[in-house]
């Protein structure tokens, strides 16, 4: 049997939530198990280890809107991810956004969000994003996500783009690991990276795992942010 991916939808517009639920629940491997209308409700239901979270059961992936009354999606993402532990891991969070939220989305990624989804994306993109994030790859491959990441990093003040810790962790990478990280930042999948470097996909997965460990990154998105911030990858190249 195929594992059912348990999904949460956080958006202050009921019609938007209903639309997402309709699309998600139409898939045999996906199920919406939580709806929340603001960040406060999301934190109460999704903070790992709390009573409400134990009653609800594990939620694998959350679609999180940014602009909501009260506690917004960025603050909610930070609190939910920060509360995760090995025993009670936080759900993976996909931030719902548009291009006019540059500085806020970068904050969400730093807080631990696993990717972006443009709110006007086709339904098939949303479904693919949920499945991709669930298997731990993070939503980084679509060209729209790469453009957004480049746009975000370009907008950052120069002093925020290359912290000492990030540079030290980058220095720990081998030359091959740097090559893999550059290709990750360019939106290449593991299969494509293997083809580019003439190595097996399993070898690529090993390199990716070592890169994440050395950078202290939760997933590919955070690793790619480090690549941009340290100048290993220059936006537009």
UniProtKB/TrEMBL annotation:
Residues 6-134 form the Response regulatory domain. One of its GO terms (molecular function) is DNA binding. PROSITE patterns: HTH_LUXR_1 (PS00622), HTH_LUXR_2 (PS50043), RESPONSE_REGULATORY (PS50110). InterPro entries: CheY-like_superfamily, NreC/VraR/RcsB-like_REC, Sig_transdc_resp-reg_C-effctor, Sig_transdc_resp-reg_receiver, Tscrpt_reg_LuxR_C, WalR-like. Residues 166-231 form the HTH luxR-type domain. Keywords: DNA-binding, Phosphoprotein, Transcription, Transcription regulation. It holds the Pfam family Response_reg. PANTHER family: TRANSCRIPTIONAL REGULATORY PROTEIN NARL-RELATED, TWO-COMPONENT RESPONSE REGULATOR. This is DNA-binding response regulator. It comes from Cellulomonas triticagri. The lineage of its organism: Bacteria, Bacillati, Actinomycetota, Actinomycetes, Micrococcales.
């Amino acid at each position: 049997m195929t594992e059912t991916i348990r999904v949460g939808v956080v958006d202050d517009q009921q019609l938007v939530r209903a639309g997402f639920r309709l699309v998600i629940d139409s898939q045999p491997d996906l199920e919406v198990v939580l709806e929340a209308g603001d960040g406060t409700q999301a934190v109460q239901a999704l903070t790992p280890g709390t009573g409400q979270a134990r009653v609800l059961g594990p939620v694998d992936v959350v679609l999180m809107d940014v602009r909501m009354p009260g506690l917004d999606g960025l603050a909610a993402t930070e609190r939910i991810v920060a509360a995760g532990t090995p025993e009670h891991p936080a759900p993976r969070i996909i931030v719902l956004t548009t291009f006019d939220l540059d500085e806020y989305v970068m904050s969400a990624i730093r807080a631990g969000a696993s990717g972006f989804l443009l709110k006007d994306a086709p339904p098939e993109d949303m479904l693919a994003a949920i499945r991709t994030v669930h298997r731990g790859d993070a939503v980084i491959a679509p060209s729209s996500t790469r453009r957004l990441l480049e746009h975000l990093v370009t907008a950052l003040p120069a002093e925020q783009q290359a912290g000492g810790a990030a540079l030290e962790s980058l220095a720990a990478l081998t030359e091959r690991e740097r090559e893999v990280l550059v290709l990750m930042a360019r939106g290449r999948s593991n299969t494509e990276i293997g083809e580019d470097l003439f190595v097996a996909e399993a070898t690529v997965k090993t390199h990716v795992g070592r890169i994440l460990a050395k950078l202290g990154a939760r997933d590919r998105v955070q690793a790619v942010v480090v690549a941009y911030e340290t100048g290993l990858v220059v936006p537009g190249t």
